[in-house]
Amino acid sequence: MAEPALAVRRRSRISSARKRSHPPARLEAVCSPLKRPSAGCEGAPAEPPCNNDSEEDMFGDYDSFHESDSLLAQVLDAEHQHPQEKGMDMKAAGEFAHGNLQSEMDQNKQGNLHATEDSVHEVDEHYGFQMDENDAGDTNEDLSDSVFDELPSSQLLYLEKMGELSSRSQRSAGTEKMDKWKNSSLDKIQSPSPCPDSGHKNRSAKSSKGSKSDSCKSVSLKDHLKNAMTGNAKVQTPKVSKTRQLKEAILSEEISVARETIGSSSFDIGPFYGLPSKVKHLLRQFRGIETLYEWQHDCLTLKSLQQRKNLIYSLPTSGGKTLVAEILILQELLCRQKDVLMILPYVAIVQEKVWGLSSFGIELGFLVEEYAGSKGRFPPIKRRIKKSLYIATIEKGHALVNSLIETDRIDDLGLVVVDELHMIGEGSRGAMLEMTLAKILYASKNTHIVGMSATLNNVGDLQKFLQAEYYTKNFRPVELKEYIKIRDTIYEVDSKAENGFTFSRLLNFKYSGSLEKADPDHIVALVTEVIPKYSCLIFCPTKKNCENVATMVCKYLNKEFRAHREKEKQDLIKNLEDIGNGSICPVLRQTIPFGVAYHHSGLTNDERKSIEEAYSRGVLCLLACTATLAAGVNLPARRVILRAPYVASEFLKKNQYKQMIGRAGRAGIDSAGESILIVQEKDKHLVRDLITSPLENCYSNLLPESTKGMQYLLLSLVGLKIAVTQEEVYSFMCHTLLGVQQQLLLKEKSLSGIIRDELENLIEKGLLKGKIMEQDQNSKSTLTITLLGKATYKGSIDLSYCNLLYKELRKGLEGLVLESSLHLLFLATPYDMVPNCSPDWMIYLRQFNQLSSAEQKVADMVGVPESFIAKKASGQAIRKNVDSAIVNRLYLSFVLYALLKETNIWSVSEKFNMSRGYVQNLLTSAASFASCVLHFCEELEEFWVYKALLTELTKRLTYCVKTELIPLMEVAGVLEARAKQLYNAGYKTVAHLANANPETLVKTIEHLSRRQAKQMVSSAKMLLTEKAEALQEEVEELLKVPTDIP
């Protein structure tokens, strides 16, 4: 009984808040001896006569119900006189006894009834409350509508107990139906999804239309009222905060309005774009957003969005695209009560978004689930009450959609949001994004797709593929001025000029001979114009160039730069030393005192996060970075300098150029942003073409990435039973982006010919079974997937390696060495890291000699004998052929083995003479691949032994820290260094962190801002809520009564 009681108390708080919200004039108008709430007055209490201020008499002017009372007596008489109309609702009975009085009250509430009359039918239909007047059993529901909707919470509690007692005795069918309605009503109130009142007010208005009923034969209406009023007098009213009551009432009311608005065909939006005004307050509180830009308002009110048509929208970087997507996500979660999938390009951005939206989830009652790296459940847990926002990388998003299609739950997904939609044209990840969207379009007609990007050109193809509308605006909150620099002259980019740019100014900076030689591109001059007062980014072609530029700039900066926020810089250096267990990069040690650092993939995750936070706070004012930062986390600057028009050795693409310069100008901070591209004379004509050329087109990558694209798609189509014949496969492929662009991309072979060839390849590999017909034959033969094929697509294994992985796992069963984790680590070492590995043979031999005899057997088993390593280390000739891929893979396994033993990236990178960024990337890739191998093994019964082993190994690789820190590392945004700080401060579990006071955290934990503390606590609460919900779902599933009991 505990849960229903809580639910009823919440209902009581909402209704009581409504009562207080009415003006006194309304209350005086309905003063009468009949103290019964009126549906039309939204539960406003009818007071005793207005001149009676006594609080002693509990029932005011009610007649005593211990004697012959007038109201109840008349009701009883009415029942006896009209037995055939016992089903008449309470309102009708009241009118029978108090005709004139009720008419007067009806006049007062008439305005309210008319105001909601038009939407009653629609709202009730939306929530399943629509009643058919011809339904014989509906009269019971009409009676229960009137009885339960009008009674206070304490009476509901009492009636609930009475219902339990009566259920043990003989009950009529009508009474059972009333109990069932009451339980479902309480369930609705329990639900954290708001809007319990949306139907509540309107059902009372509808209940007067009820037809005749034969319910409640065993208990008269008089007895019901007596028992209810007695119970109401006995039960104590819970003491709750009036402010909290009011807040809950307002939120519930507004979400009710929002749902009604979203469900209706009108464009009359609710308090805040169909959402409660609390969302607006949260945006102000968490993001500092007061108002939306005009384009955001226009986009959110598009007719196509109201009609739930798919949408692509494109604006320049920093234009505010993400906020529109987040409002659409909240509409789907709160108003339509559907799950949402948000697909982002990189793991770091997924973690940042999970971190940022957890606060909204806690406040508004939805779950935020991370699907990145090795994290995520397949299929996701089916939630009964709360809805989920899945934030996923492209790879994990595809696996999630596959699992939802397989379990027939794809319609639970109301909205899919794709950020950086232009990535659909980029390699294997683009192919996977195309597969994901094509499957959603085919499998669910109710799932809404919204894509956004700053760099789209051939939008027509994408519109046709996604069946989407298009919205674009050339808007930036901060003006961006583009410049190029040739020698010491700066030109402004001007599309109207003949050459594409016009003269702007000459650099005014005195260079010494040594400085001119060290800095021929005048980077120091460009940088010192803005720092330290403003921030600056320098994009460099390579990682090494980033470090060189940072060092060179600091060498020629004035000593005054060291004094700017000196203590905070020293704190940052100390923090980086803690991360490296006393070690710090010598370049960073030299540059940070000047407010300068580098940012590239050679940093560890902890280092990168510390540098990003310091830059965001203004402690660092200059970052020398690679192009990956432009597409990664949001770190804007007053000035952006492009060191050269190259990324590595390739000339800059227009999309990349736009991404980089888009970081210039910080909304709310800078009045303008500027970008400067440094150009050598030899590249002048190329740069002119770059500036004047349009953005690159997006083309399908299903064919170029065959084993990760076309073949993988065909395999999963058959496995998911989306298409099981050649004809069905062809039909599906015509609706992909490749199908849309086939005339452009397919010159030598037709689409049907390519499909036939790829299906034959899959059959040869043993992944599919079936007969492939020639093009001119009408093939109706069915294709089926093999066990290996199913394991391959469910494990997201590259088809290039699936047979090799299977063989190595089978070989491992013959003698799996479990004395240590080395053998398992070899099986979990990602194949795609092997080609980039160049072993240091002396280190290889040294590490081999440090292994135990059992561990050395692992090397022999996989095919790398000790003699081979020794000869390579000594430079001797090798006669026996040994597979270099296996040799390199074993070397990477040694690196991972050392990491799990030492849990310190710095020491391991020094031991193997590798960059710590490479070691970090290896660890992340291994954790993800171990998760894939686990899903692969789950589909093959012969590999049952690997399931438990790989589950634990995946967890260890994911966090790679001491066991006691793992619970804290599960919280989004908490990395190893922060987890150590929290653990040492006494926050040892997620529960500790979820219940922490942010102000106390700021005082206790070094280098932690108030904003970060609040987000960390919200993320911990979200994780705790998610785990609790999962356990609750498991309990409900266990207790559910089977429907097929013999």
UniProtKB/TrEMBL annotation:
PROSITE patterns: HELICASE_ATP_BIND_1 (PS51192), HELICASE_CTER (PS51194). It catalyses: ATP + H2O = ADP + phosphate + H(+); Couples ATP hydrolysis with the unwinding of duplex DNA by translocating in the 3'-5' direction. Its main location: nucleus. Residues 115-127 have a biased composition (Basic and acidic residues). Residues 1-63, 101-146, 165-218 are annotated as: Disordered. One of its GO terms (biological process) is DNA repair. Residues 101-113, 183-192 have a biased composition (Polar residues). It comes from the Eukaryota. Residues 302-474 form the Helicase ATP-binding domain. Keywords: ATP-binding, Chromosome, DNA damage, DNA repair, DNA-binding, Helicase, Hydrolase, Isomerase, Nucleotide-binding, Nucleus. GO terms for cellular component: chromosome; nucleus. Residues 132-146 have a biased composition (Acidic residues). Residues 526-711 form the Helicase C-terminal domain. CDD domains: DEXHc_POLQ-like (cd18026), SF2_C_Ski2 (cd18795). Its EC number is 5.6.2.4. SMART domains: DEXDc, HELICc. It is an enzyme of class 5 (isomerase). Residues 8-23 have a biased composition (Basic residues). Single-stranded 3'-5' DNA helicase that plays a key role in homology-driven double-strand break (DSB) repair. Involved in different DSB repair mechanisms that are guided by annealing of extensive stretches of complementary bases at break ends, such as microhomology-mediated end-joining (MMEJ), single-strand annealing (SSA) or synthesis-dependent strand annealing (SDSA). Possesses both DNA unwinding and annealing activities. Forms a complex with RAD51, stimulating HELQ DNA helicase activity and ability to unwing DNA. Efficiently unwinds substrates containing 3' overhangs or a D-loop. PANTHER family: DNA POLYMERASE THETA, PUTATIVE (AFU_ORTHOLOGUE AFUA_1G05260)-RELATED, HELICASE POLQ-LIKE. Belongs to the helicase family. SKI2 subfamily. This is Helicase POLQ-like. It comes from Pavo cristatus. The lineage of its organism: Eukaryota, Metazoa, Chordata, Craniata, Vertebrata.
